[in-house]
What does this fold into?
Amino acid sequence: MLPMRGVIYSMGLQMRIEKQLKLHSAALIYSLLSPSVASAYPFLYTGIHQIANSGLSALGSSDATATAANPANLSDAQATSSYADMAIVSMQYIYAHTNYDPVYLKTVAPPVNLGLNVKTDSGLSLGLLVSPRTAPGAKPIRVNSVPTFTGAGYALFNLDIEQSGFMGGLGAGYKLPATGWSVGLTLLYGEDGQEISAYASEGDQSLPGMDMKYSGRSIQGLMGIAYADGRSSLGMTFRSPAARRYDGDIASAVTDNVYDHYHGVSYHPAQLTGAVQVGRGVMDYLMQVNRDFWSLGRNVANRGLPYGSPETDFTDSFGVSFAAKLRQSDSTSLSASCGYYSANTGDGSAIDHGSTALDDTAIPVQTGMEFGQMEAIPRAVLGAGMIRTLGDNRGSWVFSGNYQTGTRTIPVGHKGEGWYHIDVFTVASGLNVKF
It folds into this structure.
């Protein structure tokens, strides 16, 4: 499937006709799907607890997945433990342009997380989390007849996409003696790559195609704090902007179908998260609010391309999630949750946030929503889970799942105009075993 932590950003097809009415240039650029390192798609959560809790991450887990959620919670582990989970994610994405037939993108993927939480006698815990982002034997994805904005309007393109990726995190959590406070720090590292071929659908053969190879490496810091007083607790995290170094090769009509190398650096959004938990009787209630600072994410360097880097009109987004946990018995807990996450992109009304320069001539780039841009669709989430303690308190087995859905309409006359819809079903099972 398409990689986790993200989303196809089409940066648009830029066209210009010379005095001789000759098509002088065309370029279709798709950048990385993942706006942050820790998760590639916004609806793919790291670990079974986040799945069950509709994305709530600052509280709720002290196993290895806390490395990528809130490293301060690593110190709550009672002993050294190993962690493994696997999910099945089924996604359907629909784009219906006003003047074209709907485009359907359907994928199924089995994301996996493996980790270790090492508990020391000093109150320090070390977390390691590894998340391969490519399933063995994964096949390329083909999407046909995608309406794509050009300098002269819309045209239909077919896309062939191959993707790969990896995410790893190394974190530490420390419980301050006799205070109830814990602090934590994680360094997240990600790699991803893609090969994309874009070519005109039947009837638009006059438009040139494009072949693109891409690889990126990202680094992001995650800082967290947590406080516990009996059955009440709070957690806060701050994700630094993710610094991404990317490079690749592209061949199109601009380069006479000869591969040219390009590279650059970009920064993707910071995130601030806060969560609280209150226990009453056999129930625990949790709430989380997060803010993603998308407006700060921009390309800051770009070399090797014959045109500049247009910017999407990002807007800061927010998310809120609620969860309730029932302690059914000493060995079994049940949970239910809901959440909402807003869109991160404007409606495309701003048209001068970037330009494409060809032969010293600037071409305005209209910003807005693009096909495959998952974060640009607001989503509602429903989740549930069950935790079962293993015999002799040797660990726990967790089963969880959620359903996410969202719809958005971009007005006619704006770039990306049309109707967008996404449905995602996730089921997951994981095991945390103490040593």
Notes: Residues 330 and 389 are 8 Å apart (CA to CA). The chain has a mean pLDDT of 78. The chain has one domain: 9-434. The two ends are 35 Å apart (CA to CA).
